[in-house]
Design a protein that fits this description.
The protein has ten helices and 62 strands. The protein is mostly beta strands. The longest helix is centred in the N-terminal third of the chain and has 18 residues, at about 205-225. Strands 5-4-3-15-8-9 form a six-stranded mixed beta sheet, with helices on both faces. A six-stranded antiparallel beta sheet has the order 56-57-62-61-60-59. The chain is globular. About 15% of the residues lie in helices and about 40% in strands.
């Protein structure tokens, strides 16, 4: 990195000698040799970064210096935030600060630039652009041209698209995630529809932010008059932190190929600086030194993310037709639904709870979903197949489920943002990682009581339990830290040992059957680090040839081979555990994701999200068989204990959540099963699950009984109407009186209550409410939902049964 240039430094000496010196590199360019070079600059939340490039794209130098916050309204704002909120009272301060930043950037240029191109968030209006124009004049720079950041980024990441192709750009900033649909024309890219955005809340786990952004992108595409299937790709860029799971989450939500830009922080600035027909601009004024130096351009990028947007999850305005196998959500926990196969789904509206949909293995039909907490991200089943636990990231709880009756117990309060589980082999303890609290909470499954949180490194994620059950390995730093670690926890004492350094952003851990070695997958480095469990030391990392953003890892039952898939490859990487060396990749479909291996270890199945199929291959020979088309973008798979049936969950072409069943013996896929939301996990009980037994549900409380304290399943009378159909109010979580529930419903539906986003999100008196889209109401029967922010109580309104 070159020496930072301060805003108060002068370029007079450079002009006098007609030379530009690149500090730290000892490179000296003469001004008369500068033909074709450009200086691209990024003004971020806290820094101003620049890169010097020549016409062939070669980077010659970089520079970075702090962007000082501005004292405004008895507080401080970043330069970018100040621009987005300029008022007559602070306009002078903002103009001077922008002019100083432009002068500092221009100090890298050996003479006054001939062109000034300013890229900006697509949602900006006239006011901030006017301030930038005035700042450029004050800095004695040319009249600026303006280019929206998503358009500039598309020039960089989608330049090979044909006219008529449409892509979406998802831009991660430190304050917000912005998104825009753009279409390639013969001359350039043009915006389609309006800008979408979600606010980045530092207190919220990054995984939750990504999911909100994915749903907002879905709404942005719909609002542009398009179906997700009409997108050629989604491109992820930005200077903010981009979690490792972003491509997975976006792909699962939209069913569209999602790519992380090779240089996400610089995508817009390089796109603006690269060769392209210039955007329309006012006539440029010539520099006094134009005759002495070649034409130069200064490109200032103000990254997307400014503007005040409420963090909401939009409704998914996509068609989700009900079928005979549809999960008709009732809002009341079902009974007699121990089906052995369970799909965890995320609700499409932030205020609505998620659900677990049981699938009867005898008929492959979905049964009534079991309501859990909001934003459920993980599920685990006890070895005896009697209970399941769901991590509710939105309310910091874990929901226990009795699988024999389909009923839920009181949610267990754990740490902030629980998002992964590890279960001991005896099923007595389940460990949940609290990504937002840097801890792991042990839960006694016999009493459903949480133990004292165990401290880990920052951002714990995946948990793997050793085969003997004595040690839990917790991966830390997934999607956040540059240096990943693994924290070993003694399950007998629930104490953590010294952390083990592994590759950055660890996203998966597997053990060999003998427990002597644990393997940790690094998403960032594309490598696998073996750990000697006896000494708890890391061995040299195994580099995966051709791996790009690997995310899924599994091991064969005999422990001889490890398989890894990656986002952008079309092959499965293999590792020989005897030698810890990479084998030849196995060619499969496009975008390999989940992997499932038959219990006998003979055949592996790979879900290919981009090619909408599942590829089986022989584990011994590595030879793939014909792929099985399944008509959806598969992201999760689970194999029954007898190895005869493979369950697959993913996103249909219409954007709805679906599951399908593959008969392993025939290689045929059955008809799709509709799900009530976006699938985030699928599990199969160890025995495949008992057949559902005949049980009659007790009638829900109504009338006089419903006027008192109600629990899950209590019907509190009418809930209004929707499209001429009567609805009823049903308590789904916790205990509260029907009177309180009706009062909250009346407050939410009142025209005087402010609502935000396409989901109609409203927050008041500790409650959060939102409604579904018409398509989802038709598919699930749920109209709207309200829940307390602390997760203690919730209710929904549903279409009443005639």
């Amino acid at each position: 990195m070159a020496r930072p240039i301060r805003a108060d430094e002068s370029r007079d000496s450079d002009r006098t000698s007609q030379k530009c010196i690149a500090p730290d590199r000892g490179i000296r360019w003469k001004a008369d040799k500068m033909s074709g070079w450009k200086l691209s600059v990024n003004i971020g939340d806290s820094t101003v970064a620049a890169v010097v490039v020549v016409d062939n794209g070669e980077t010659l130098d970089t520079v970075e210096f702090p962007a000082q916050p501005l004292p405004i309204n008895d507080g401080t704002l970043s330069l970018r935030d100040a621009l987005s909120g300029t008022t007559p009272d602070n306009q002078g301060v903002v103009i001077r600060a922008c002019a100083d930043a432009l002068r500092a950037v221009a100090a890298r240029v050996p003479a006054a630039p001939d062109r000034l191109v300013l890229t900006h968030p697509a949602g900006w209006g006239v006011a901030p652009l006017t301030v930038l124009r005035q700042a450029a004049a004050e800095a004695a720079l040319p009249e600026p041209e303006f280019l929206a950041a998503p358009i500039a980024a598309a020039r960089r990441v989608a330049a090979d698209r044909a006219p008529g192709d449409t892509v979406a750009v998802l831009d991660f900033g430190h304050r917000a995630v912005d998104m825009l649909v753009v279409r390639r024309t013969a001359a350039d890219f043009v915006a389609v529809g309006t800008v979408g955005s979600v606010h980045v809340d530092d207190a919220e786990p990054q995984e939750a932010t990504v999911r909100r952004a994915a749903f907002e992108l879905l709404a942005t595409v719909t609002n542009a008059g398009l179906e997700p299937s009409q997108l050629a790709a989604v491109h992820v860029i930005g200077e903010g932190t981009i979690p490792a799971t972003t491509p997975d989450v976006v792909r699962a939500t939209l069913g569209v190929e999602t790519r992380l830009a090779p240089d996400p922080a610089m995508a817009a600035v390089l796109g603006a600086a690269g060769p392209w027909p210039p955007v329309a601009a006012a006539p440029r004024r010539r520099s006094r030194l134009a005759g002495l130096v070649a034409i130069a351009a200064v490109v200032i990028v103000l990254v997307a993310g400014a503007g005040a947007y409420l963090a909401t999850r939009p409704s998914r305005d996509t068609t989700a037709p009900a079928t005979a196998a549809s999960a008709a959500t009732s809002g009341v926990p079902a009974v007699g639904v121990a089906a052995g196969v369970y799909v965890l789904t995320l609700a499409d509206t932030v205020a609505l709870p998620g659900s677990v949909t049981p699938i009867d293995p005898a008929t492959n039909a979905a049964r009534k979903p079991i309501t859990v907490g909001s934003k459920p991200f993980a599920i685990v089943v006890t070895p005896d197949g009697k209970r399941a636990y769901v991590a509710n990231t939105g309310v910091d709880t874990v929901t226990p489920i009795d699988l024999a009756t389909g009923t839920t117990a009181t949610p267990i309060k754990v740490g902030a943002a629980p998002d992964a589980f590890g279960m001991t082999p005896d099923g007595k303890t389940v460990y949940v990682s609290n990504a937002g609290a840097s801890s792991v909470t042990p839960i006694d499954t016999t009493s459903n009581t949480p133990g004292k949180p165990i401290r880990t490194d920052e951002h714990p994620g995946v948990i793997a339990i050793s085969p003997d059950g004595r040690t839990a390995y917790v991966a830390n730093g997934g999607g956040v830290e540059d240096i990943g670690t693994v924290t070993p926890i003694d399950t007998a004492t629930n104490t953590a040992g010294p952390s083990i350094t592994v590759g950055s952003q660890p996203v998966a851990i597997v053990f060999t059957p003998d427990g002597r070695t644990a393997y940790v997958l690094s998403w960032t480095l594309g490598s696998v680090t073996p750990i000697d469990t006896a000494t708890r030391t890391a061995r040299p990392a195994i580099k995966l040839t051709g791996a790009v953003q690997p995310k899924v890892m599994t091991i064969t039952p005999d422990g001889k081979t490890i398989y890894v898939t990656g986002d952008t490859s079309a092959a499965v990487m293999a590792i020989d555990t005897a030698t810890n060396t990479a084998r030849r990749p196995i060619s499969v479909g496009s975008g390999p994701d989940a992997i499932a291996i038959t219990p006998d270890g003979a055949t592996a199945y790979v879900a290919n999200y981009a090619s909408n199929d599942v590829t089986p291959f022989n584990v011994v020979t590595g030879l793939a068989r014909a792929s099985i088309p399944i008509g959806m973008h598969p992201t999760f798979m689970a194999m029954t204990a007898n190895g005869e049936t493979l369950y697959v969950a993913g996103i249909g072409r219409d954007g709805s959540g679906i599951a399908t069943v593959i008969d392993v013996r025939t290689g045929k896929a059955a008809a799709p099963i509709s799900l009530p939301g976006t699938p985030v996990a699928i599990v199969v009980t160890p025995t495949g699950g008992p057949a559902p037994h005949a049980t009659t549900a007790a009638p829900a409380a109504t009338g006089a009984a419903a006027t008192g304290q109600g629990g899950p399943g209590t019907i509190c009378g009418p809930g209004g109407s929707f499209d001429g159909r009567a609805t009823e109010l049903v308590i789904t979580t916790g205990t509260l009186t029907c009177q309180v529930a009706q009062e909250v419903l009346a407050r939410y539906t009142s025209p005087s209550t402010p609502k935000q986003g396409s989901a109609g999100l409203a927050e008041f008196d500790g409650w959060q409410c939102g409604h579904q889209s018409v398509a989802q109401i038709d598919a699930t029967g749920l109209v709207l939902g309200c829940g307390r922010a602390d997760g203690s109580a919730a209710f929904v309104t549903r279409i009443a049964t005639p």
